[in-house]
Amino acid sequence: MKFRQLLLLTLLVNMPSLTQGQDGPPQGWVSGISGGYLHQSNSDLDNGGEFGLDQATIQYDLSRFLADGDSYGFSTSYTVWRYDFSNTPALGGAVPWSDINMFDFGVPLRYKLDNGWRVFALPSIRSTFEDGASFSDGLTYGGIFGASYQVSDRLTIGPGFGAFSSIEESMSFFPIILINWELNDYWSVETGRGLGATLGPGVFMNYDPDENWRIQFGGRYESLRFRLDDDGIAPGGAAEDQNFSFFAGARYSPNPGMLLSLYAGWKFSGTLTMDDSTGAELFQEDYDGAFIGGFTAKFYFK
How many Cβ atoms are within 10 Å of 190's Cβ, its own excluded? Predict the structure, then answer.
């Protein structure tokens, strides 16, 4: 199973929390804009050298929520990763790649059945590429499809599957599982994106002391695969950054239209890989653990 294909699941599992601080589901058209920033401290590469990372994201959503719980909409986002390499002897001191861009376009659809089931779909297109590479060369596509069942007032769980293309690799198919379990009035467990500005799927424990605050602890897997430009070490090739992370964070919602989050954690078991245009591996470096920290801000408008 290709874990990086699970990234788009996060757009569906944790849809905008529009009901924070109000009774009943939202209805009508709701638009939202969000932004986030993440910093990763310098991390040593196994064969010498180091790198740090800064990431920024902006996203716009437009959704229509119906009285029966159905919804449909559109989401688009732009993310940039700024890698800062220094002294990479495995590559003769060369910089493996520069800034990485990602444009993402999705159409989340959710439909509530009469028997407690909810079905969903998220077809999506994205392009991920280094500065200097073309938008079209970084295109991938696919979709997430599945269903969730409300077992009780406190537990929703369900299966699904995804199918996604990948740069320089074959189509991948994989199973998914959705969980939202309220253990009591204060604690809950869920899968999804969590509080951070990062993309990967994870599992999280939440503590909600009141309707305005949420404290969260969790872990996630992440993978970023992208097309390289035509002027670097591997012209027209592809590269990938894979890692795991644990973090803790806090979210504050002063009103139903605003969510503010801060988080910090540790990234570990990271690996950087570079392939040439034929898919042959040119470079693979594990990197040491590193501190990560960041924030997100989300605003919703009816």
Answer: 21
- List pLDDT tens digits, range 132-155: 999 999 999 998 899 999 999 999
Tell me the C-alpha to C-alpha distance, in Å, between residue 62 and each of 72, 141, 199.
9, 21, 20
Domain count, the chain: 1
Instruction: Summarize the confidence of residues 148-166 as an average pLDDT.
Output: 91
CA distances from 8 to 3, 22, 70, 121, 189 (A): 11, 28, 20, 11, 20
% helix, strand, coil for the chain, step of 5: 5, 65, 30
- Give CA–CA dist 301/292, Å, rounded: 31
Q: CA-to-CA distance for 186 and 301, rounded, in angstroms?
A: 28
Determine the structural domain holding residue 247 and report its residue range. Answer: 3-301
Q: Decide: helix, strand or coil at residue 10.
A: helix
User: Which amino acid, residue 4?
Assistant: R
- Check which CATH number belongs to the domain holding 151 and give it: 2.40.160.40
Structural tokens at position 147: 């269903």
Work out the percent of the chain whose per-residue pLDDT is above 70: 88
Non-local CB neighbours of 109 within 8 Å, separated by 6+ positions: 71, 72, 120, 121, 122
- Quickly list H helices, the chain: 9-13
C-alpha distance across the termini of the chain, in Å:
40
> CB within 8 A of 26, min separation 6: which ones?
18, 19, 65, 302
pLDDT in tens, 59-78: 999 999 998 889 999 999 99
